[in-house]
Structure formats: structure tokens, C-alpha cells
Write a sequence for this structure.
């Protein structure tokens, strides 16, 4: 059977010759099929690119929203921390007033029971009341010393340990234990176990004992005017609450107590109960040598 074909006539413009070109039907159909397939492929590529661009735009929008939420969360966390400190102080003063004026020292209940007289506190309650009064006394000492300390060397201007090597910076970072984002309230300074930790300014020790939750052995020094410094993960504590210290006094020793992976000193500076970047105080002392960023130390 003779193959069917299309005839294409080509005429030369100068010589006037005609030339016939025979194109089989199968070739024409194949060319049309390839053209149709190319169109489908092109439109598929365009659609895929459009979907990818849409997803990238959504991802960028979600990332910006997450950054904004993270910033708001950190701000709210600082506010909550300040409010908690204020609430703790109010509760402490309320307890002191309760003990001082004998409020709720009588039996409560029916008249025949209440008439029996005052309720005698137990040994545990007596110890608790003593602890409350001791803490209140420390707050009173810190308050009375604020004005006097503000006139002395009450601003941190020295490094708490020798070495001056920052192992974990202040600010946002990845917690090595949970792998999630966390806010580092201070700086981790490289130092071997047993190295002396110095008070960075004159002040009153308001805390000098073990703290559960990560800090380990912790010393907190109040420098007056709402300024406080924290020294955490200590191996030894050489001072007691209520003691007055001077700039450069050795108050403890470097260790690895609490939630850590290696010995170092966690150093914080707080103003009004809110942590601030200690760099501005450490930089004045000179010798600042930050190590390449690490994620090994959580506090």
C-alpha cells in the first residue's frame, strides 16, 4: 500500500523553479505530538515554579511572624521575672508584718476553741518564721546600704575570674540539653575548677547557697540602686548572706555544680531584677577575648 503524505511546494523567487517536498503523515503527527508534549511540560514547569515561589513567600512570612513572637516572648519573660521578684518581696514583707504584729496567732474556729488562747507554733513553723525574718533582715540591710554603696565602688568594673575568655555569650542561643532555643541571661567565662571568684564591685551578699534548677551553688551580691551580680556553678562558697564585700574580694571558687557540662563561671548582671548584657561592664575592665561561638554550656 502506498504511504500517504503531504506535499509542500517551494518556489525559487529568482529562477522560478518549483520544488516539491513530500512529508509523510506520520512525521507531521509526530511533530505535533512533540509540540503538544513540550507545551504540557512548559506549563507544568511554570506551575511548579509558581507553587514553589508561593511556598517560599509563606515560609518567609511565617519566619517573620515567629521572630516577632519570639521577641515579644522575651519581653514578656523579662516583665514576668520582674513581677515575680516584686511579688516575692511583697510576700516576704507581708510575712514579716504578720509575725511582728501577731496576726493569725490565735486559734480559729468556734468560740469555745478560740477562747483557749493563742496557738503555740510548732518547731517547723518557728524555723520557717526565723528564715523569713532573716531574709527580711537581709533585704533591710541591702536597702540601708544602697545609698552608702552607691557612693563607693558599687559598679562592676573588673572580671570575676582570670582568663577573660567568653565561652557562651549573652542572648539567644540553642540549649545543648534540649536542642531548643533559649535565652542566656549571662555569660559563661572559661576557668578551671577551684579558681577564685572575685566580687566585681562593693556590695552586700544576699544569697550564698545551692539553688535548684540549674544554677547550682550561687552567690548573689546587691550593689545598691537595683544593681545585682550573680556568680553560679561554684564549687565552694566563702561568704554568707548578709556579709559586706569589697571589689576584688574572693567570694567563691569555680566549679561545675548545677546544670552544666564542664567547669566554668556563669556571670550575670541584673538591674531592677532584669538581666542585662554584662559585656558593657566587662569591656571597661579590658582583656575581652571571646571564643568562637559554642553551644556547650546552658547557663
Amino acid at each position: 500500500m502506498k504511504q500517504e503524505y503531504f506535499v509542500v511546494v517551494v518556489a525559487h523567487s529568482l529562477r522560478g523553479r518549483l520544488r516539491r517536498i513530500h512529508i509523510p503523515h506520520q512525521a507531521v503527527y509526530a511533530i505535533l505530538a512533540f509540540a503538544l508534549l513540550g507545551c504540557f511540560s512548559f506549563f507544568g514547569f511554570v506551575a511548579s515554579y509558581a507553587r514553589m515561589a508561593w511556598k517560599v513567600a509563606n515560609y518567609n512570612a511565617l519566619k517573620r511572624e515567629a521572630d516577632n513572637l519570639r521577641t515579644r516572648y522575651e519581653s514578656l519573660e523579662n516583665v514576668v521575672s520582674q513581677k515575680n521578684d516584686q511579688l516575692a518581696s511583697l510576700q516576704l514583707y507581708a510575712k514579716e508584718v504578720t509575725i511582728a504584729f501577731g496576726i493569725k496567732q490565735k486559734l480559729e474556729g468556734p468560740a469555745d476553741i478560740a477562747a483557749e488562747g493563742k496557738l503555740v507554733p510548732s518547731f517547723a513553723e518557728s524555723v520557717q518564721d526565723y528564715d523569713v525574718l532573716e531574709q527580711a533582715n537581709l533585704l533591710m540591710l541591702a536597702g540601708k546600704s544602697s545609698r552608702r554603696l552607691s557612693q563607693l565602688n558599687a559598679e562592676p568594673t573588673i572580671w570575676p575570674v582570670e582568663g577573660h575568655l567568653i565561652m557562651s555569650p549573652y542572648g539567644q542561643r540553642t540549649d545543648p540539653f534540649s536542642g531548643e532555643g533559649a535565652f542566656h541571661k549571662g555569660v559563661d567565662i572559661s576557668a578551671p575548677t577551684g579558681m577564685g571568684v572575685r566580687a566585681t564591685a562593693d556590695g552586700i551578699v544576699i544569697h550564698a547557697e545551692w539553688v535548684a534548677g540549674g544554677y547550682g551553688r550561687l552567690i548573689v551580691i546587691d550593689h545598691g540602686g537595683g544593681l545585682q551580680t550573680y556568680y553560679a556553678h561554684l564549687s565552694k562558697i566563702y561568704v554568707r548572706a548578709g556579709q559586706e564585700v569589697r571589689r576584688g574580694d574572693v567570694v567563691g571558687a569555680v566549679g561545675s555544680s548545677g546544670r552544666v557540662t564542664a567547669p566554668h563561671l556563669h556571670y550575670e548582671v541584673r538591674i531592677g531584677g532584669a538581666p542585662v548584657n554584662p559585656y558593657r561592664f566587662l569591656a571597661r575592665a579590658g582583656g575581652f577575648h571571646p571564643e568562637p561561638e559554642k553551644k556547650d554550656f546552658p547557663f
